[in-house]
Write the C-alpha coordinates for this entry.
Amino acid sequence: MFRLRNLVLLAIAISLLAGCARRRKYENPITSNSEQPDKILFDKAVNDIEKGRYQVARLTLNTLMNTYDTSEYMAKAKLAVADSWMREGSTTAFAQAEAEYKDFELFYPNMEESAEAQEKICEIHYRQMEKPDRDTMQAQRAEDECRNLLLQYPNSKYAPRAAQRLRNIQEALAEGEFLSGLFYYNKGSFPAAANRMENAVNAYPLYSKADEALWLTGNSYAKLPAKWRSNAINAYQRIVRDYPLSLHAEDAKKALQGMEADIPESNPEQAARMKYEAENYSKPGRVSNTLGMFKRGPDVSGAAKQGEPAMQPLRPSIPVSVPTPEEIAKAQAAAQQAGVGGTNDVGAEVITGPSVLDTQPDSRLQNQRPAQPAPATPGAKPSK
Protein backbone atom coordinates (compact mmCIF):
# COMPACT_ATOMS: atom_id res chain seq x y z
CA MET A 1 0.00 0.00 0.00
CA PHE A 2 2.86 2.35 0.91
CA ARG A 3 4.69 1.60 -2.35
CA LEU A 4 1.54 2.21 -4.41
CA ARG A 5 1.02 5.58 -2.72
CA ASN A 6 4.60 6.60 -3.47
CA LEU A 7 4.18 5.63 -7.12
CA VAL A 8 1.00 7.68 -7.39
CA LEU A 9 2.70 10.71 -5.82
CA LEU A 10 5.63 10.26 -8.18
CA ALA A 11 3.31 10.20 -11.18
CA ILE A 12 1.57 13.37 -9.99
CA ALA A 13 4.91 15.11 -9.50
CA ILE A 14 6.09 14.11 -12.98
CA SER A 15 2.87 15.40 -14.55
CA LEU A 16 3.22 18.72 -12.70
CA LEU A 17 6.82 19.10 -13.83
CA ALA A 18 5.81 18.29 -17.39
CA GLY A 19 3.10 20.94 -17.20
CA CYS A 20 5.57 23.52 -15.94
CA ALA A 21 8.05 22.81 -18.72
CA ARG A 22 5.75 24.09 -21.43
CA ARG A 23 8.49 25.37 -23.71
CA ARG A 24 9.04 22.87 -26.49
CA LYS A 25 10.87 23.62 -29.71
CA TYR A 26 8.65 24.10 -32.75
CA GLU A 27 8.93 21.43 -35.45
CA ASN A 28 8.55 23.60 -38.57
CA PRO A 29 10.65 26.78 -38.19
CA ILE A 30 11.94 28.89 -41.07
CA THR A 31 15.72 28.97 -40.94
CA SER A 32 16.36 31.93 -43.26
CA ASN A 33 17.78 35.12 -41.70
CA SER A 34 15.48 37.46 -43.57
CA GLU A 35 14.42 40.70 -41.87
CA GLN A 36 11.24 41.07 -43.91
CA PRO A 37 8.10 41.95 -41.90
CA ASP A 38 6.30 38.69 -42.70
CA LYS A 39 9.32 36.68 -41.52
CA ILE A 40 9.48 38.72 -38.32
CA LEU A 41 5.79 38.05 -37.65
CA PHE A 42 6.27 34.33 -38.26
CA ASP A 43 9.25 34.14 -35.89
CA LYS A 44 7.28 35.98 -33.21
CA ALA A 45 4.39 33.52 -33.59
CA VAL A 46 6.76 30.54 -33.34
CA ASN A 47 8.24 31.98 -30.15
CA ASP A 48 4.74 32.34 -28.69
CA ILE A 49 3.87 28.75 -29.65
CA GLU A 50 7.00 27.44 -27.94
CA LYS A 51 6.11 29.35 -24.78
CA GLY A 52 2.49 28.18 -24.75
CA ARG A 53 0.92 31.50 -25.77
CA TYR A 54 -1.22 29.87 -28.43
CA GLN A 55 -3.94 32.49 -28.78
CA VAL A 56 -1.37 35.29 -29.19
CA ALA A 57 0.47 33.18 -31.77
CA ARG A 58 -2.70 32.65 -33.79
CA LEU A 59 -3.47 36.37 -33.78
CA THR A 60 0.03 37.06 -35.10
CA LEU A 61 -0.26 34.40 -37.79
CA ASN A 62 -3.65 35.69 -38.91
CA THR A 63 -2.14 39.17 -39.16
CA LEU A 64 0.61 37.76 -41.37
CA MET A 65 -1.84 35.93 -43.66
CA ASN A 66 -4.25 38.86 -43.96
CA THR A 67 -1.61 41.53 -44.46
CA TYR A 68 0.89 39.68 -46.67
CA ASP A 69 -1.38 37.47 -48.76
CA THR A 70 1.40 36.86 -51.32
CA SER A 71 4.03 35.97 -48.73
CA GLU A 72 6.20 32.93 -49.26
CA TYR A 73 5.40 32.00 -45.66
CA MET A 74 1.65 31.63 -46.19
CA ALA A 75 1.71 27.82 -46.18
CA LYS A 76 3.99 27.70 -43.15
CA ALA A 77 1.76 30.16 -41.32
CA LYS A 78 -1.37 28.12 -42.00
CA LEU A 79 0.35 24.96 -40.81
CA ALA A 80 1.55 26.79 -37.68
CA VAL A 81 -2.04 27.76 -36.85
CA ALA A 82 -3.02 24.07 -36.90
CA ASP A 83 0.05 23.15 -34.84
CA SER A 84 -0.87 25.73 -32.20
CA TRP A 85 -4.32 24.18 -31.80
CA MET A 86 -2.81 20.71 -31.54
CA ARG A 87 -0.30 21.78 -28.90
CA GLU A 88 -3.15 23.31 -26.88
CA GLY A 89 -4.38 19.76 -26.42
CA SER A 90 -8.00 20.07 -25.28
CA THR A 91 -10.83 18.19 -26.98
CA THR A 92 -12.09 21.38 -28.62
CA ALA A 93 -8.56 22.32 -29.68
CA PHE A 94 -8.04 18.89 -31.24
CA ALA A 95 -11.23 19.29 -33.29
CA GLN A 96 -10.11 22.72 -34.48
CA ALA A 97 -6.62 21.41 -35.29
CA GLU A 98 -8.08 18.61 -37.41
CA ALA A 99 -10.16 21.11 -39.39
CA GLU A 100 -7.09 23.30 -39.96
CA TYR A 101 -4.95 20.34 -41.10
CA LYS A 102 -7.63 19.22 -43.55
CA ASP A 103 -7.80 22.78 -44.94
CA PHE A 104 -4.03 22.74 -45.37
CA GLU A 105 -4.20 19.49 -47.36
CA LEU A 106 -6.95 20.99 -49.49
CA PHE A 107 -5.03 24.19 -50.31
CA TYR A 108 -1.53 22.67 -50.57
CA PRO A 109 -1.95 19.05 -51.71
CA ASN A 110 1.46 18.86 -53.43
CA MET A 111 3.58 20.13 -50.55
CA GLU A 112 5.61 17.74 -48.44
CA GLU A 113 3.92 19.13 -45.35
CA SER A 114 0.57 17.70 -46.53
CA ALA A 115 1.73 14.25 -45.46
CA GLU A 116 2.74 15.72 -42.11
CA ALA A 117 -0.72 17.27 -41.76
CA GLN A 118 -2.35 13.91 -42.42
CA GLU A 119 -0.01 12.27 -39.91
CA LYS A 120 -1.03 14.86 -37.30
CA ILE A 121 -4.72 14.10 -37.94
CA CYS A 122 -4.02 10.45 -37.22
CA GLU A 123 -2.15 11.40 -34.07
CA ILE A 124 -5.07 13.54 -32.86
CA HIS A 125 -7.39 10.55 -32.76
CA TYR A 126 -4.63 8.19 -31.60
CA ARG A 127 -4.07 10.31 -28.50
CA GLN A 128 -7.78 10.22 -27.68
CA MET A 129 -8.18 6.44 -27.89
CA GLU A 130 -9.91 4.67 -25.00
CA LYS A 131 -9.16 1.25 -23.53
CA PRO A 132 -10.33 -1.74 -25.63
CA ASP A 133 -13.36 -2.44 -23.43
CA ARG A 134 -14.69 1.10 -23.88
CA ASP A 135 -15.82 3.29 -26.76
CA THR A 136 -13.82 2.53 -29.91
CA MET A 137 -14.90 5.57 -31.95
CA GLN A 138 -11.55 7.36 -31.66
CA ALA A 139 -9.65 4.15 -32.45
CA GLN A 140 -11.72 3.65 -35.59
CA ARG A 141 -11.16 7.26 -36.65
CA ALA A 142 -7.43 6.92 -36.02
CA GLU A 143 -7.36 3.72 -38.09
CA ASP A 144 -9.08 5.47 -41.00
CA GLU A 145 -6.74 8.48 -40.92
CA CYS A 146 -3.54 6.42 -40.66
CA ARG A 147 -4.75 4.21 -43.50
CA ASN A 148 -5.43 7.34 -45.59
CA LEU A 149 -1.85 8.50 -45.02
CA LEU A 150 -0.47 5.18 -46.30
CA LEU A 151 -2.75 5.31 -49.34
CA GLN A 152 -2.26 8.98 -50.25
CA TYR A 153 1.42 9.39 -49.32
CA PRO A 154 2.99 5.90 -49.54
CA ASN A 155 6.50 7.29 -50.18
CA SER A 156 6.39 9.87 -47.41
CA LYS A 157 8.91 9.82 -44.58
CA TYR A 158 5.92 9.61 -42.23
CA ALA A 159 4.66 6.34 -43.76
CA PRO A 160 6.74 3.94 -41.57
CA ARG A 161 5.61 5.66 -38.39
CA ALA A 162 2.01 5.65 -39.60
CA ALA A 163 2.25 1.91 -40.37
CA GLN A 164 3.46 1.15 -36.85
CA ARG A 165 0.77 3.35 -35.37
CA LEU A 166 -1.80 1.52 -37.49
CA ARG A 167 -0.56 -1.82 -36.11
CA ASN A 168 -0.96 -0.42 -32.59
CA ILE A 169 -4.49 0.75 -33.34
CA GLN A 170 -5.50 -2.58 -34.80
CA GLU A 171 -4.06 -4.34 -31.76
CA ALA A 172 -6.46 -2.34 -29.58
CA LEU A 173 -9.44 -2.96 -31.86
CA ALA A 174 -8.73 -6.69 -32.02
CA GLU A 175 -8.36 -6.79 -28.23
CA GLY A 176 -11.84 -5.30 -27.90
CA GLU A 177 -13.30 -8.00 -30.13
CA PHE A 178 -11.40 -10.68 -28.19
CA LEU A 179 -12.72 -9.44 -24.85
CA SER A 180 -16.28 -9.49 -26.18
CA GLY A 181 -15.80 -13.02 -27.47
CA LEU A 182 -14.29 -14.11 -24.15
CA PHE A 183 -17.34 -12.75 -22.34
CA TYR A 184 -19.67 -14.80 -24.54
CA TYR A 185 -17.44 -17.87 -24.18
CA ASN A 186 -17.56 -17.72 -20.38
CA LYS A 187 -21.34 -17.26 -20.52
CA GLY A 188 -21.71 -20.36 -22.70
CA SER A 189 -22.90 -18.46 -25.78
CA PHE A 190 -20.53 -20.29 -28.13
CA PRO A 191 -21.88 -19.08 -31.52
CA ALA A 192 -21.41 -15.44 -30.48
CA ALA A 193 -17.98 -16.19 -28.97
CA ALA A 194 -16.75 -17.92 -32.12
CA ASN A 195 -18.13 -15.12 -34.28
CA ARG A 196 -16.32 -12.33 -32.39
CA MET A 197 -12.97 -14.09 -32.07
CA GLU A 198 -12.82 -15.47 -35.59
CA ASN A 199 -13.82 -12.07 -36.98
CA ALA A 200 -10.97 -10.41 -35.06
CA VAL A 201 -8.39 -12.85 -36.45
CA ASN A 202 -9.72 -12.58 -40.01
CA ALA A 203 -9.59 -8.78 -39.90
CA TYR A 204 -6.30 -8.41 -37.97
CA PRO A 205 -4.05 -11.48 -38.43
CA LEU A 206 -1.13 -9.63 -36.75
CA TYR A 207 -3.04 -9.51 -33.43
CA SER A 208 -0.81 -10.73 -30.62
CA LYS A 209 -3.50 -13.08 -29.23
CA ALA A 210 -4.68 -14.41 -32.59
CA ASP A 211 -3.61 -17.96 -31.72
CA GLU A 212 -5.54 -17.90 -28.45
CA ALA A 213 -8.57 -16.44 -30.23
CA LEU A 214 -8.43 -19.30 -32.77
CA TRP A 215 -8.08 -21.87 -29.99
CA LEU A 216 -11.24 -20.58 -28.28
CA THR A 217 -12.93 -20.38 -31.67
CA GLY A 218 -12.22 -24.06 -32.31
CA ASN A 219 -13.41 -24.99 -28.83
CA SER A 220 -16.61 -23.01 -29.34
CA TYR A 221 -17.42 -24.70 -32.65
CA ALA A 222 -16.58 -28.10 -31.12
CA LYS A 223 -19.33 -27.56 -28.53
CA LEU A 224 -21.93 -26.86 -31.26
CA PRO A 225 -23.85 -29.47 -33.31
CA ALA A 226 -21.91 -31.69 -35.71
CA LYS A 227 -22.72 -29.61 -38.81
CA TRP A 228 -20.19 -27.01 -37.63
CA ARG A 229 -17.42 -29.54 -37.09
CA SER A 230 -15.59 -28.26 -40.18
CA ASN A 231 -15.40 -24.78 -38.62
CA ALA A 232 -13.65 -26.20 -35.58
CA ILE A 233 -11.21 -28.14 -37.76
CA ASN A 234 -10.42 -25.00 -39.77
CA ALA A 235 -9.66 -23.01 -36.60
CA TYR A 236 -7.30 -25.68 -35.25
CA GLN A 237 -5.57 -26.03 -38.62
CA ARG A 238 -4.97 -22.27 -38.79
CA ILE A 239 -3.16 -22.42 -35.44
CA VAL A 240 -0.83 -25.17 -36.66
CA ARG A 241 -0.21 -23.55 -40.05
CA ASP A 242 -0.13 -19.78 -39.33
CA TYR A 243 0.94 -19.66 -35.65
CA PRO A 244 3.37 -22.60 -35.32
CA LEU A 245 5.18 -21.19 -32.26
CA SER A 246 1.95 -20.77 -30.32
CA LEU A 247 1.49 -22.44 -26.94
CA HIS A 248 -1.71 -23.93 -28.36
CA ALA A 249 -0.05 -25.53 -31.41
CA GLU A 250 0.44 -28.96 -29.81
CA ASP A 251 -3.04 -28.92 -28.31
CA ALA A 252 -4.45 -28.06 -31.73
CA LYS A 253 -2.63 -31.01 -33.29
CA LYS A 254 -4.06 -33.34 -30.63
CA ALA A 255 -7.54 -31.94 -31.27
CA LEU A 256 -7.15 -32.57 -35.01
CA GLN A 257 -5.98 -36.12 -34.36
CA GLY A 258 -9.00 -36.75 -32.17
CA MET A 259 -11.28 -35.42 -34.94
CA GLU A 260 -9.41 -37.54 -37.54
CA ALA A 261 -8.59 -34.41 -39.56
CA ASP A 262 -5.47 -33.53 -41.54
CA ILE A 263 -2.63 -31.76 -39.73
CA PRO A 264 -1.16 -29.10 -42.06
CA GLU A 265 2.50 -28.16 -42.35
CA SER A 266 3.60 -25.02 -40.50
CA ASN A 267 4.32 -21.90 -42.51
CA PRO A 268 8.05 -21.03 -42.13
CA GLU A 269 7.43 -17.35 -42.85
CA GLN A 270 4.89 -17.18 -40.04
CA ALA A 271 7.30 -18.97 -37.74
CA ALA A 272 10.02 -16.41 -38.53
CA ARG A 273 7.58 -13.56 -37.93
CA MET A 274 6.52 -14.94 -34.54
CA LYS A 275 10.17 -15.43 -33.57
CA TYR A 276 10.96 -11.82 -34.51
CA GLU A 277 8.02 -10.52 -32.48
CA ALA A 278 9.08 -12.55 -29.43
CA GLU A 279 12.65 -11.26 -29.64
CA ASN A 280 11.57 -7.63 -30.03
CA TYR A 281 8.80 -7.62 -27.45
CA SER A 282 9.19 -4.74 -25.01
CA LYS A 283 7.72 -5.83 -21.71
CA PRO A 284 6.07 -2.99 -19.73
CA GLY A 285 7.94 -2.00 -16.59
CA ARG A 286 6.64 -2.21 -13.06
CA VAL A 287 5.79 1.47 -12.93
CA SER A 288 3.92 1.23 -16.24
CA ASN A 289 1.87 -1.70 -14.95
CA THR A 290 1.07 0.13 -11.74
CA LEU A 291 0.02 3.34 -13.44
CA GLY A 292 -1.89 1.52 -16.19
CA MET A 293 -5.15 2.00 -14.30
CA PHE A 294 -4.72 5.77 -14.55
CA LYS A 295 -3.89 5.69 -18.25
CA ARG A 296 -6.63 6.59 -20.68
CA GLY A 297 -5.36 4.83 -23.78
CA PRO A 298 -4.93 1.10 -24.46
CA ASP A 299 -1.85 -1.00 -23.78
CA VAL A 300 -0.29 -1.69 -27.19
CA SER A 301 3.01 -3.12 -25.97
CA GLY A 302 2.13 -6.46 -27.58
CA ALA A 303 1.42 -4.95 -31.01
CA ALA A 304 3.32 -6.36 -33.97
CA LYS A 305 6.57 -4.65 -34.96
CA GLN A 306 6.58 -5.82 -38.58
CA GLY A 307 4.17 -7.07 -41.22
CA GLU A 308 1.67 -5.24 -43.37
CA PRO A 309 -1.22 -3.81 -41.34
CA ALA A 310 -4.74 -4.56 -42.51
CA MET A 311 -5.98 -2.05 -45.07
CA GLN A 312 -9.67 -2.91 -44.64
CA PRO A 313 -11.71 -1.90 -41.59
CA LEU A 314 -13.28 -4.40 -39.23
CA ARG A 315 -16.66 -5.52 -40.55
CA PRO A 316 -19.33 -6.96 -38.22
CA SER A 317 -20.28 -10.53 -39.01
CA ILE A 318 -23.22 -12.79 -38.18
CA PRO A 319 -22.91 -15.87 -35.91
CA VAL A 320 -23.28 -19.25 -37.59
CA SER A 321 -26.36 -20.02 -35.49
CA VAL A 322 -28.33 -17.33 -37.35
CA PRO A 323 -29.92 -18.86 -40.49
CA THR A 324 -28.93 -17.31 -43.80
CA PRO A 325 -31.62 -16.15 -46.29
CA GLU A 326 -30.85 -19.21 -48.44
CA GLU A 327 -31.38 -21.55 -45.48
CA ILE A 328 -34.64 -19.82 -44.58
CA ALA A 329 -35.93 -20.09 -48.15
CA LYS A 330 -34.93 -23.76 -48.30
CA ALA A 331 -36.72 -24.51 -45.02
CA GLN A 332 -39.87 -22.72 -46.19
CA ALA A 333 -39.90 -24.65 -49.46
CA ALA A 334 -39.51 -27.95 -47.60
CA ALA A 335 -42.33 -27.04 -45.20
CA GLN A 336 -44.69 -26.11 -48.03
CA GLN A 337 -43.87 -29.31 -49.88
CA ALA A 338 -44.63 -31.32 -46.76
CA GLY A 339 -47.88 -29.39 -46.23
CA VAL A 340 -46.95 -28.11 -42.80
CA GLY A 341 -46.37 -24.68 -41.38
CA GLY A 342 -48.20 -21.44 -41.92
CA THR A 343 -48.00 -18.67 -44.45
CA ASN A 344 -46.08 -15.44 -44.43
CA ASP A 345 -48.32 -13.74 -47.02
CA VAL A 346 -50.15 -10.59 -45.93
CA GLY A 347 -53.05 -9.21 -47.98
CA ALA A 348 -54.95 -5.92 -47.93
CA GLU A 349 -57.82 -4.28 -49.81
CA VAL A 350 -59.29 -0.78 -50.02
CA ILE A 351 -62.85 -0.40 -48.59
CA THR A 352 -64.93 1.89 -50.81
CA GLY A 353 -68.50 1.55 -49.42
CA PRO A 354 -70.04 1.32 -45.94
CA SER A 355 -68.56 -1.39 -43.74
CA VAL A 356 -69.66 -3.27 -40.66
CA LEU A 357 -68.16 -0.51 -38.57
CA ASP A 358 -70.69 1.90 -40.07
CA THR A 359 -73.84 -0.29 -40.03
CA GLN A 360 -73.56 -2.21 -36.74
CA PRO A 361 -73.85 -0.69 -33.27
CA ASP A 362 -70.78 -0.29 -31.16
CA SER A 363 -70.49 -3.35 -28.92
CA ARG A 364 -68.69 -1.32 -26.29
CA LEU A 365 -71.85 0.77 -25.77
CA GLN A 366 -74.02 -2.33 -25.43
CA ASN A 367 -71.95 -3.66 -22.55
CA GLN A 368 -72.11 -0.44 -20.57
CA ARG A 369 -74.51 -0.45 -17.60
CA PRO A 370 -76.60 2.63 -16.70
CA ALA A 371 -75.21 4.64 -13.86
CA GLN A 372 -76.85 3.83 -10.50
CA PRO A 373 -77.85 6.69 -8.19
CA ALA A 374 -75.77 7.02 -5.07
CA PRO A 375 -77.45 5.72 -1.88
CA ALA A 376 -79.06 8.39 0.28
CA THR A 377 -77.31 9.28 3.51
CA PRO A 378 -79.57 8.91 6.58
CA GLY A 379 -80.69 12.29 7.93
CA ALA A 380 -79.62 14.19 4.80
CA LYS A 381 -82.03 16.73 3.30
CA PRO A 382 -83.12 16.16 -0.28
CA SER A 383 -81.61 18.58 -2.73
CA LYS A 384 -83.92 21.01 -4.50
Remarks:
- The CA atoms of residues 277 and 304 lie 6 Å apart.
